[in-house]
Amino acid sequence: MCAHREHTFTVDIHTHILPEHIPDFKRKFGYGGFIYLEHHAPCRARMLQDGKFFREIEDNCWDPEKRLKECKQHYVDVQVLSTVPVMFSYWAKPKHTLYISQFLNDHIAQVVQRYPMRFIGLGTVPMQDTDLAIKELERCKSIGLAGVEIGTHVNDLNLDAPQLFPFFEACQQLDMAVFIHPWDMMGKERMPKYWLPWLVGMPAESALAICSLIFGGVFERLPDLRVAIAHGGGSFAATFGRIAHGFDVRPDLCAIDNPYHPSRYLGRFWVDSLVHDINMLDFIIRMFGAERVALGTDYPFPLGELEPGELIHQYTDDPQLKNLLLHGSALQWLKRDLAFFVQNL
Q1: N or C, which end of the chain has less CB nearby within 10 Å?
Q2: Architecture of the domain delimited by 11-19+62-342
Q3: What pLDDT digit, counting tens, does each position of 180-212 carry?
Q4: In this structure, are strands 35-41 and 119-123 parallel, antiparallel, or unpaired?
């Protein structure tokens, strides 16, 4: 991090957290597929799935004190906490996913309650059962979480599926923010090498989610739904010309559930700034508007922005624009008041 740069109040909407200890859900529920942690060295653990290595993590993934220390080093004032998407567990029996969701949500709520001016929490819910998802959404609100993180799809369902609409309707009614994060990437069976599911599949997942919400009429029917999409919206911005042209030339295929042009919805949702390229950052700001682009880093994982906010600081010296990108857009999405967080600075 450039130590000389002037500090601007900074909110990171895209960070992940896990409890330090995760129960043996395989033993509890009687079948496999669940993540557990193997603490094999000080301050380190392996994420394992049925004994198969998934990811190595460090204590900054579970220790709020370590996170706060690194936030200070990186000039981040507030982190928005959400679970690691592999924990969604939409494939499991709904009652078991509900149990896991409650376990994870209670942990995030406890961290937020302990450090209310440093963290904002997003819950996870059993999206494969809409009724249970809404009940847990309501509970998330009651324990102080600002919204929920969901996947770009729910098993075989895209986000325009009619059975999912009541959940989005409940999010609007309860005034809960929605953060959409890619998971279980499409085509992963055809991408066994080169980390391609993360490099190619993830951006495509986010574009699929946005197009589903647009073409499916979810944004049209729920104008007050507050949605943010990870990784700058994935490949959506880069392929929007093709998406719009497809709507123009084949409305018989694209407009079957929503008659309005996709351009109507640019600026209706937020994206994070995690695009790794200053030209792409400029592109999404021009496409969506600076008030719809918020700092996101994917902390604490290496595919994220390793120096939080550095790309934004490189992009502009304009104080007003920098304020929007580093905290203003985030707080608008979350419906949080800046004064609450700065009062003790």
Answers
A1: C
A2: Alpha-Beta Barrel (3.20)
A3: 999 999 999 999 999 999 999 999 999 999 999
A4: unpaired
For residue 266, give both structure tokens.
């640019």
Rounded CA separation 29/173 (Å): 33
Residue type (1 letter), 85: P
Residues 6+ apart with CB under 8 A from 63: 20
- In the block, tokens 């896991």 appear at 100
Closest CA to 91 of 100, 80, 83: 100
Cβ of 86: how many Cβ atoms within 10 Å? 16
Coil, helix or strand for 222? coil
Nearest Cα to Cα of residue 269 among 184, 125, 159, 137: 159
Task: Give the separation between CA 92 and CA 98, rounded to whole angstroms.
Answer: 10
DSSP string, 265-292: GTTSSEEES--S-HHHHHHHHHHH-GGG
* Residues 284-300: tens digit of each pLDDT: 999 999 999 999 999 99
Q: What is the dihedral of CA 334, 79, 44, 306, to 10 degrees?
A: 110
Does pTM top 0.90 for this prediction?
A: yes
CA distance 42 to 234: 35
CA-to-CA distance for 133 and 5, rounded, in angstroms?
A: 43
Chain region(s) in the chain for CATH 3.20.20.140: 11-19+62-342
**Helix crossing, 165-174 with 130-142: angle to 10°?**
20
Where would I find the H helices in 175-235?
Answer: 196, 202-215, 218-221
